[in-house]
């Protein structure tokens, strides 16, 4: 007897992660919230390494949202400094592992050092194909949609695009992850059950997985649990279960 939910693919091609819970991790230890952000770096490393190990093709990490700018200035400051520091320190190892780094988000809001570090890391790893690592910094799903809509409107206005040619595929290509297949699996740590303005368009049919583990504690075993749960899901994309299983 076949199992009732035969997975289409056991390992997701693209995993998107909201790395949440750093502040609470620190507060539980009577440490400043920023100590949680620092502790979260280990989990980022483990997640990247395990993605490579499991054969995940693309990993998109939500590091800093458009709304996170509204946090206390000292926390934002530490996060930005940490970002530049980690980027400088980790890029060699990522390059060696065959990781291609790419950043998505509104760079106009970032400082010169961040922008330069990002461009250098992207250039340095551009030829790598083992894992595409998208890091979302100063990113918001609504900003992404609005930016794409503006660009499309400009093209139509300038006569570079026929309005009739504006379909889902054409619009999707204008988004920050336009060249990437949609995420198969979304993971949010930290116990909250929301999307928090992450990839609003791209997550339309993504399998959602929420866990209570705070981000600094997230490890390969937690990641495997998410992948295992994903492998048991039946992705129907609007069809019936019978259709998906090949019945008529
Ligand atoms: C996620 O952890 C990291 C960022 C948003 C930058 P939080 O800082 O949101 O941690 P909690 O949710 O307050 O515990
Ligand atoms: C989402 O987490 C953003 C990142 C993890 C970078 P938040 O902690 O900012 O989300 P909310 O405010 O709880 O929705
Ligand atoms: Mg949070």
Question: What is this structure, in a nutshell?
Answer:
By secondary structure, the protein is an alpha/beta fold. The chain contains 8 helices and 6 strands.
Describe this structure in words.
There is one protein chain. This protein has about 250 residues and is α/β, with parallel strands linked by helices. It has a single domain (about 15-140, about 185-235), classed as Undecaprenyl pyrophosphate synthetase. The chain has helices spanning about 20-30, 35-55, 75-95, 110-125, 140-155, 170-175, 220-230, 240-245, and strands at about 15-20, 60-65, 100-105, 130-140, 185-190, 205-210. A 6-stranded parallel β-sheet has the order 3-4-2-1-5-6, sandwiched between helices. Helix 4 (about 110-125) links the parallel strand 3 (about 100-105) and strand 4 (about 130-140). Helix 2 (about 35-55) runs parallel beside helix 3 (about 75-95). The radius of gyration is 19 Å and the shape is globular. The model is unreliable at about 1-5 (pLDDT under 50). One 3-methylbut-3-enyl trihydrogen diphosphate binds near residues 18, 20, 65, 192 and 194.
